């Protein structure tokens, strides 16, 4: 896994966020789209991929997911839950979109962890060290790190 500083991709990541925001604004009920993940935090190490997080009102979540299924390819259906859907985006960098109902455990977990990492140099250094430890076991290490920051991971629902 080739890692690079977020600063090398953040401008492109913000362009992707803007383009997706403009595309989805007329198609979805009220929602919030944010750039998240390693490519959103200056000083973070990233593979160069872009993570976007879309939150919808809980009542609008099913329709939002249905609309997105018509626009984007489903990825990682094995992790889908009642409060999480994931899609691949066609963009200048590899990009994905996680969709959650506002206020759900997944929503809080994504938002809070990245807010904490962006605000605390110690946590950022710990995140980078976890990335540098290599791909084997990375997802488990990352999940445990996020759990330590935000509480238990949401339970499977689908």
What's the helix and strand layout?
Blueprint: E1 4-5, H1 10-24, E2 31-36, E3 45-46, E4 50-56, H2 61-69, E5 73-74, E6 85-89, E7 95-101, H3 105-119, H4 121-132, H5 138-150
Parallel strand pairs: 4-7
Antiparallel strand pairs: 1-3, 2-4, 5-6, 6-7
Structure in words:
With 158 residues, the chain is α+β, with helices and mostly antiparallel strands. The protein has a single domain, classed as Beta Polymerase, domain 2. It has five helices and seven strands; from the N terminus they run βαβββαβββααα. The chain has helices spanning 10-24, 61-69, 105-119, 121-132, 138-150; strands at 4-5, 31-36, 45-46, 50-56, 73-74, 85-89, 95-101. The strands form two sheets. It has a five-stranded mixed β-sheet, with helices on both faces. It has a two-stranded antiparallel sheet with strand order 1-3. Strand 6 (85-89) and strand 7 (95-101) form a beta hairpin. The longest helix is centred in the N-terminal third of the chain and has 15 residues, at 10-24. The mean pLDDT is 94.
């Amino acid at each position: 896994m080739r890692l690079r500083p977020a600063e090398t991709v953040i401008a492109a990541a913000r362009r992707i966020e803007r383009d997706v925001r403009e595309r989805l604004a007329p198609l979805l009920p009220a929602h919030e789209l944010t750039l998240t993940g390693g490519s959103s935090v200056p000083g973070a190490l990233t593979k160069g991929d872009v993570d976007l997080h879309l939150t919808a009102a809980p009542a609008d979540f099913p329709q939002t997911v249905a609309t997105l299924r018509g626009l984007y390819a489903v990825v990682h259906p094995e992790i889908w839950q009642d409060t999480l859907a994931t899609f691949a985006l066609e963009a200048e960098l590899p990009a994905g979109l996680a969709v959650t109902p506002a206020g759900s455990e997944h929503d809080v977990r994504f938002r809070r962890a990245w807010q904490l990492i962006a605000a605390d140099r110690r946590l950022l250094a710990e995140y980078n060290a976890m990335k540098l430890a290599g791909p084997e076991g990375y997802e488990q290490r990352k999940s445990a790190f996020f759990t330590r920051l935000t509480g238990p991971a949401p339970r499977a629902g689908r």
